[in-house]
C-alpha cells in the first residue's frame, strides 16, 4: 500500500505501538493534519494559504494594528508573521506602514481589495465547518466544542513562553 495514499479513518486498535499511551494526542494530530489539508484545498480557491485567512479575519474585525500585536493574537512568531504579511501584501490584501508614533512598529491594515475576499473566506470557512462537523447534531457540535475548549485550556498551562490571551483561539474579551 502506498504511504502517500489518501488518508483514511483509523480504527482504535490501529495506533502505532508508541502512540498507544497517547491516543487522544494521536487523534488530535491526525485530525489537525487533515483539517489543514482540507482548509488548504478550500483556501486555494480564493488564492490563500492556510493561516492567511486567520490574519485577514483579525484585520477585518480589528482594523489597522501593529504587526507584533497581530502575531500575539494568532500565537505565532514574528518571522512567520512577517512572511505571511509580505505574501498578503504582494497579493494586494494588506498594506504595511511604519507607525508615526513608534518608528520601530509596523502597522498592518486590510486593503479595499481584501473586502471582496472577506465574503469568500466566510463562505469557505462555513464549508470547512460543514466538512468537519458532518452529520453531528447540534448537541454533539456543542459538546465537541466544549471538549476542544477544555483540551485547549489543559494545554495552555503547559506553554512556557505564551500567555493564554496570546494563544490561537484565546478570547480577548
From TrEMBL:
Domain of life: Bacteria
Keywords: DNA-binding, Transcription, Transcription regulation
Stretches assigned to the HTH marR-type domain: 21-153
Gene3D superfamilies named among the record's database cross-references: Winged helix-like DNA-binding domain superfamily/Winged helix DNA-binding domain
Official protein name in the record: HTH-type transcriptional regulator MgrA
Keyword Transcription: yes
SMART domains: HTH_MARR (SM00347)
Organism: Streptomyces cyanogenus
